[in-house]
Amino acid sequence: MTYEFDDNDLKKIEKIKAKYPEVMPATLPVLWLAQNKFGHVEPDVQRLVAHTLDLPEAHVHGVATFYTQYYKEKKGKHVLDVCTCLSCQLCGGYDMLNYIEDKLGIKAGETTDDGMFSVEEVECLGACGYAPMLQVTNGKYVNHLTEEKVDKLIETLKEGKDPEYEQIRMPLRKVN
Amino acid sequence: MPEVIIDGNQFEFDSDKDGSLLQFILDQGLEVPFFCYHPSMSVPANCRQCMVKVGTPVKDRETGEYELDDDGKRVIRWFPKMQTSCNTQLSDGMVVHTQETDKLVERAQKDTLEFILANHPLDCPICDQAGECPLQIQTYKYGPEGSRFEVKKVHKPKRVHLGPRVTLDAERCINCTRCVRFTDEISESKQLTIVQRGDKNYPVAAPGREFDDAYSMNTIDLCPVGALTSTDFRFKARVWEMNQTPSIDISNGKGTNIDLWTRDNLVLRITPRYNEDVNDYWMPDVSRNAYKMFNENRVSRPSQKLDNEQVQSSWNNAFATLAEQIEKTDNEKIVFVGSPHASVEENYLLMILSNLLAGSTPVFTPHIIDGAGDNFLLTDDQAPNTNGCRFLGLDELSKKDLSGKIKKAELVILLNDNLMGRDVLTAGDFKNAFFTMFATNNTVTSKEADLVIPITTAAEHAASYINVDKRIQRTVPAKETKYSNRRLDIEMSEGRLDRYGTSFDNWVTEENKVDCLPMWSITNELSDILGLNITYKNSRQIMSEIAEQSPAFSGVSFQAMDEQSGIDLTATKHTVKS
Amino acid sequence: MSSADWKNFEPVLIPNTKDLHKIDVYQKNGGYGALKEVLTDKKKWEGPKDVVNEVKAANIRGRGGAGFNAGLKWSFMPPADGKPRYLACNGDESEPGTFKDRKIFEYNPHVFIEGALIAAYAMEITSIYVYIRGEYIDYIDMMQKAIDDAYEKGFIGKSIFGTDYSVEFYVHSGAGAYICGEETSMLESLEGKRGYPRVKPPFPAQKGLWGRPTTINNIETLAHVVSVINKGASWFSGIGAENHPGPVLYGISGHVNRPGVYELPSGVPVLDLIHDVAGGMRNGKELKAVIPGGSSTPVLRADQLDGVSMDSDSLREVGTMMGTAGMVIMDEDTDMVDVLWRIAHFYHHESCGQCTPCRDGTGWLEKILLKIKNGEGEIKDLDLLLDITTQMEGRTICALADAAAWPVRHTINRFRDEFEARCKKSVHAVA
Fold this sequence. Notes:
Chain A is α+β, with helices and mostly antiparallel strands. In chain A, 41% of the residues lie in helices and 10% in strands. Chain A has helices at 7-17, 27-38, 43-53, 57-66, 87-90, 93-104, 147-158, and strands spanning 78-83, 117-122, 134-136, 141-142. The longest helix of chain A is centred in the first third of the chain and has 12 residues, at 27-38. In chain B, the strands form 7 sheets. In chain B, strands 1, 2, 3, 4, 5 and 6 form a 6-stranded mixed beta sheet that branches.
């Protein structure tokens, strides 16, 4: 299918370009814009970004493959990035990953047959104190995972609702 | 003069010209292993192979004097880590230890090679790069013995059709990024990039696009391993079987310096030769494919037309026929046509014959296609020696004028220019004339000729060519003809197969030697028959004669051309056409 | 306030004020007063140089992990020449164990904005870019809103407070690469390219973004600048440890009862942080190991922690580093081989692939550790691992190879028995 930017997108792109003295820095933000619009940055989308910004196609391709958050192929409607690094590993991150894999019937890196869910195993997401946790489709963090919480999350996502932002206060130091 | 001390030896350097420590070390004839550094491109310092230990002398802030230790020697502040010499800038008093004098540096270089080889596939037996592979050579000299890598190597795509002329083997790539920098900085097509991250990365073109840059095959020379190889040359020959002969590109007017690689008297490939004034380290792809014209479709043995059909003749017959035609035709009806595709010496010989036999100067028409050139190594001028014809004083005619002149002639003697193939003449133009052609390859024009006499190509003779920038350069013979012998011609290189092969083994194929003669040999024969008293022994002698007689060529000789990598003739004056 | 007094410390960076992220609340609590003073009170602050000297005297050690005196780094900038100069704020918080800068983004973004503006004035900067990791999408929106509010109030933009100082402030989002936390890699990413670190020299202060002088500072470092201006360099350098002063955001995670981010002076004893501040070990287990400052810092065994406090000198004595103060606490049931393998996997995944020792070395380390983890390893593999770490360290363009090598070397050295027990029994005698 052909991918195009409409006038609104082009206006946003102009605003993005205005932030930098050259046009090449706009590569990352415009790839984000494209991914948010189309859901991925497959080669056709990369070509669109390259032509819109008048940059070499090879350059956009190299940038898109370097960063992990750009989806190089179509993923499921909801991508569950489960962190299993260091603190999350210590607090049961792998158990959560295995539970989600069993529940959805797919392995990490795969998508369910109905195209609803993809599971990925990722590196540190910066929520080490709230382990184990996962991120939903480059968006909200879901912390302090338990099997019940995972079940509820998947139900919420299946209903088409986004999870709520979890506010975590800095714990007041208890002085003994 | 500022100086630097390398391995205990002092070297003076010029702070304007010498910047990079690695380049300076190489210029002195010393050796430090490296992969990603290239003198004509930016320095990324990412292979980490050219490690050396560097220190600078300590200067007292107040007095400006060097601090001395108890022995009276300068105190050296060593850099805490070893430095990559490619991006270390020279400074006065710098002290450098390479792998020759420091064990830690030797160890560091060995470690880097171990890391490169960790994921490098064991492809040497099937890799084209073997024999000219910097990784092989540096591993042999500086690398580890054996491998400690006992886990699985990373797998990446192999035999990828990167472009129409370049094949990629991603596993062999060591990510030096020379190819990517080439397309960014030199050819400026920006078609290549590195994809993925970490040890999964390799170079590739944009998805859905080919690497069809007009200079794409230069990355094959640049690539220090067998990751980028020539699709055309793949598996044809091993490097040590071939002879490497310096020559000049004759496919366009730039005069790119090249090397011809031959085995068993077939030219198998062409690679560029460094010349800082003409082509640096590069050459265009179309010129590389020109090697085929030296091997294929050659005119071998003279032929003549009998009943309007060309049949093979003999040398004696050919000379006799030509002499007869010359003697029976009036001088004004003989037209000698020179060629910008032929060398200076060949055109000069034609001019002598024309002067003596027809009392006229030869004519020629340049071969120029507007818009074919770019600002780099491709030129509009499709012939290597247009300026040569001009400097010699041949008459330059337009296509129309030449065609008109041919139509009125009774004897046309054409030197190796495919005039019908490039739409200057048609078959009808030769209706009234006996058409003789000295030709190298079978073309539509040579098929029309009444008499075809084969001559040598640039791969078989030593001759000079003047390029569009008025630089005269010369070729060296690489291919034997039926009448030349590598062992007798001191300029022709001898390889393993030549030295140890005989006519009775499988390494020598007589059919690869073309039955042709150099132009000076033909001139000698003709002069014999026609009583002209011309004897030339070789092209070198012809060039000395030209240099003596023509002020445009003053100071030119084969020796001077070799020593100076070509001579710039812009300052000299052209001959006035007489 | 010395380290011993840490229990009485009142948070300065993220105080317990409600809605401090709203600019009106921030202003009411004295916010942007420091900026106004620096720009307009010419008797106290004659020019930008005075600000640099004050910050240098305060000795704010960089909170991004390298611990370099921020004021000293500022003084490396060349004199202004009328062309653009940049401040790049490093919010690419991807080091495992580190999750502190997000608190500043969420609860007190304006202290960071004000700190960045003061830094920009001190170095005569023309544009500020804050680089936030792409996964922090909520915080990117929060930061953009805070910056828009500050623009509206005239704290950013042309002629701030009526002076002739103008500066622009932009948010740039990353896209998932740990290597982009390295300062020159972040510059490459800001320039829209693959995040390959640059060769130094030339240093960013000479040639940074688009060839112009650039300074890079961590978010928390810049946030501290405000309190230095408000309360003075001597107040700041009097807090916590002598050589590493000031409040620190400790990010405590792992097997403790109350993991989270705590603002305390530097130099708090490690054991106090674990048992007192973070509520002690979970489920009553015993402490086994502590990683003090994010996964790049060498691990410490429980018996090495006596008398060790969270400041750079004390930690260096026991053979580790302060890093980002992201502490990971491990209890007695932790399998060190598993943990080390996962750390090696992280570095293998995040290596940018530019230079040889890191690209091939991180992969090699992970593969050998996987072999050992699966019970296929041999004793000689442990010595090979130590050899590889020596070969990787100090030979690369950036410090990721060092950061990958240190955990492997020190975890194996400090838990050698556990690793040897995991290896296959050797048929040959081990010398």
